[in-house]
Specification:
The protein is mostly beta strands and 679 residues long.
Length: 679
């Protein structure tokens, strides 16, 4: 096997003795009138987008100060990220909460437009691998809204933007404490000197966990350097994360989260997850002429993870890692009449490996010994074209198409056989997949600050390597999975500017060749589903003191096929697919330097079995946040989570083997306080 994994992409971190800083607290900025980069890979006014893109500003991140990704991204309509223990999470964007291979490959997680992981090696918990705590913004595309992004952008994508260098010297240190021995420190130093700007951000967290044996330690560092030339500009970004986590398991029993004697217990105290990720990229942009630019972005990536699979009866240990080298290339031409066209090609080569070993004695089909030991070399080549046409003075057309070719070269390092009744180890093989992703959108300007849009897009997901080569199912064969395809149509309207701002969108999507695990823990490689929903996001300032922000989602996610063995009938709701979600926030500018926010989170009931005979009742949780600038340099802040001490579950499902309800317990009321000092 080639030696890509030995590339020296890990850098010396211990030598970085820095002065640590952050921005002085600013008023929360919830305006929709901002440039977004994710839909077009360049700054585009949100009013011109043919599609539904949510943006979280760096000011909002600084106010919320999240210690988990759910606290910030769930403020976007149509998004539901369920919290696990520590930094673990499961994602939903215009979808049910998807797990396993379905979850890992249905959402694309990026940092500055570069995927956090290679397409076939996605991590269902992937957002803990990026420094969202100190980001310059987060953008969420709901649905397969762009031809510029390929495999895994099926239901949507989340792009975490690095924070740009400051124009003047900034130094800040931020320290906070919370319950259960939670301590967090963040620091930043940034400046621009001549044509060079830089920002170094670091943060570290230790948390004892709110259930027994569920603590974690995590460290993140990111360094960005910008060069601003007349013709050439460069943006170089280095990111590294490390996570060492004890992992709590589900508790079992109907409404077990209401039982005080159970809610703080951990049935699997030996479970753990250790993960590292490192990325290095340089974006080079050259202004070729007054109306044309060339952008080249080479990058390197390395990830590795080891964890005890506590959710399986035999509790095997999985080790996986992959190293990648890639290039994003794009040529942009501005044409007369307000037209623009982008020609691009994405290339990536990855070397990955995975092993799974059960050291404990055999338990039913979970046999002791080596389950899997394999390597996969993956090559992805994806040319695309994206165009924008000013058809009329107030009418704009967006069209694009992407062709993506994926090739896997799989080597099985064990015997090719069926191990017990569960584990299937295919012969060494080579496989390839080809997918075409078109997009067509229309934007009609109604007034200076209001526009309507309609958008069609197709998303694709080449099978994950685990779908093909780590088969954990009864009665299945390796290689059964095919590329998932989803077709989406949406229509909406948005208003920006002063006063009331809003965005409303209705969508319908149909998906085929859906690869998922049913309630009986059997993989289904050829499912069909359909998804219909209505999303509303709004912000209204009553006056200089009070404002309100709301994100509300109504959705129906249902099976579009029958399968008696899985207890699935066409029209049944998918599991973990709430009909309604809401996030409503009342803001109060108490003084010019003091802001408070009361947040109400609503989750409706949802089914947890394929036959829709068992469900979770839903919950309502209220949070309170506040921030006060003591001086120009010192800010005090705090939050009360679960103000009314509601008993609820962050996640609920059902175990068909044990015939039991299972829950990840929501945390009881707690206070988290901190201070940031700039100098």
């Amino acid at each position: 096997m080639p030696t890509l994994r030995k590339l020296p992409i890990l850098m010396a971190l211990a030598s970085m003795n820095i002065a640590l800083p952050v921005y002085a607290q600013q008023e929360e900025d919830l305006s929709l009138d901002e440039l977004v980069v994710t839909g077009t890979r360049s700054g585009t006014p949100i009013l011109d987008l043919a599609g539904n893109t949510g943006r979280i500003s760096e000011e909002e991140i600084d106010f919320v100060r999240p210690d988990h990704i759910t606290e910030i991204v769930n403020r976007v309509s149509g998004v539901n990220i369920q919290r696990g223990n520590g930094q673990e999470h499961l994602t939903s964007i215009r979808s049910p909460v998807l797990t396993g291979g379905a979850g890992a490959g249905s959402f694309l997680f990026l940092e500055d437009g570069i995927p956090l992981r290679a397409a076939g090696f996605a991590n269902v918990n992937g957002l803990f691998e990026v420094n969202y705590e100190q980001a310059g913004g987060i953008e969420v595309v709901r649905g397969p809204g762009s031809a510029l992004y390929g495999s895994n952008a099926v239901h949507g994508l989340i792009n975490v933007l690095s924070r740009a260098p400051s124009l003047d010297l900034q130094r800040e240190i931020d320290i906070s404490v919370g319950p259960h021995d939670l301590y967090q420190m963040k620091g930043t130093v940034s400046d621009t000197i001549g044509q060079h700007g830089y920002r170094l951000s670091v943060n570290g967290t230790t948390d004892g966990g709110y259930v027994s044996d569920s603590g974690y330690d995590q460290q993140k560092v990111s360094f960005r350097h910008d060069y601003y030339g007349e013709i050439d500009s460069f943006k170089t970004l280095f990111s590294h994360t490390n996570l060492n986590q004890e992992t709590a398991s589900y508790i079992e029993g109907f409404k077990a989260y209401e039982d005080e004697s159970l809610s703080r217990t951990n049935p699997d105290p030996e479970a753990y997850r250790d993960a590292k990720s490192t990325r290095l990229s340089t974006e080079w942009e050259r202004q070729l002429t007054d109306n044309s630019t060339l952008r080249l972005t080479p990058y390197l990536r390395h990830t590795e993870m080891e964890f005890l699979m506590h959710f399986l009866n035999g509790q095997p240990v999985e080790k996986n890692k992959h190293s990648s080298v890639g290039l994003l290339a794009a040529y942009t031409k501005d044409l007369s009449g307000g037209h623009k066209i982008i020609f691009g090609t994405d290339f990536e080569y990855t070397e990955g490996e995975l092993s799974e070993v059960q050291n404990s004695p055999s338990v039913g089909p979970f046999v002791q010994g080596v389950h899997y030991d394999y390597e996969v070399d993956a090559t992805v080549v994806a040319p695309y074209v994206h165009s924008e046409w000013q058809l009329l003075e107030k009418t704009r057309l967006t069209a694009g198409v992407r062709y993506e070719y994926t090739k896997y070269d799989y080597t099985n390092n064990t015997d090719s056989l069926t191990l017990g009744t569960r584990y299937l180890r295919p012969d060494s093989d080579k496989e390839n997949f080809s997918n075409l992703s078109p997009k067509l959108g229309l934007v009609q300007e109604l007034t200076e600050d209001t526009a309507a849009f309609i958008n069609y897009a197709r998303g694709n997901r080449a099978p994950q390597t685990t779908d093909l080569y780590r088969i954990q199912q009864r009665g299945a064969t390796g290689g059964a999975a095919d590329s998932e395809t989803i077709d989406s149509i949406e229509i909406g309207m948005r208003k920006i500017g002063d006063g009331l701002q809003y965005e409303i969108a209705a969508y319908h999507m149909k998906k085929k060749d859906y690869f998922f695990t049913d309630s009986n823990q059997i993989n289904v490689p050829d499912g069909k589903t359909q998804h219909t929903g209505l999303e509303l996001g709004a912000f209204y300032p009553f006056n200089e003191q009070f404002d309100i922000a709301a994100n509300v989602t109504f959705a129906k996610h249902e099976y579009d096929f029958n399968r008696e063995s899985s207890n699935i009938e066409k029209g049944d709701y998918l599991v973990t697919a709430p009909k309604r979600m809401g996030n409503i926030r009342l803001g109060w500018n108490v003084t010019p330097v003091t802001r408070a926010e009361l947040e109400w989170i609503h989750m409706s009931e949802y089914y947890i079995t394929d036959g829709n005979d068992k469900k979770y009742e839903g919950h309502d949780v209220v949070n309170l946040r506040a921030s006060h600038d003591v001086t120009d340099n010192l800010t005090l802040y705090g939050k009360v989570h679960n103000l009314f001490n509601t008993e609820y579950a962050e996640r609920a499902d059902y175990n068909g083997f044990s015939d039991e309800y299972r829950y990840f317990v929501g945390e009881k009321r707690y206070l988290h306080v901190g201070a940031s000092y700039s100098f």
